[in-house]
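From the shared-data thread, chain only:
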Amino acid sequence: MKSLLPFQFFAIVIVVSSCVTLTQAQMPSVQVTKVNTDRVKTYEKFEIHLELSGVEIENPYDPEDIDLYAQFKSPAGKTVRINGFYDNYQNADQWTLRFSPDVVGDWAYQIYVKNKGRTGKSSIGHFVVVASPHH
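Structure, as tokens:
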């Protein structure tokens, strides 16, 4: 077996590193930039603003082009899927997700973005739901 010269090994490492960087750069990602509260009353609005990167979008209103959603997990372990949307009202240029919880307790959520056959996801977030007179 032929051994590699030091500069050949270095060149191979650079090529492999570049391929990994390009692959990671092309993966879609989603990050929470703002939530309206970390303590929400039942049947009231929990709103999340998001930043997307690594996506190629022709039409932000076409779910075949981009699919943005969250999975909310209730204190009892029930999972609810809620779709996000592109909000450009008054030139907001903002990705948003709104949810109205119906159960008191600690909730968890994770946001997903699907684009061009690839999926990215956020870190897991949490918020607390407290009782309200609403039903």
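Residues 4 and 10 are 10 Å apart (CA to CA).
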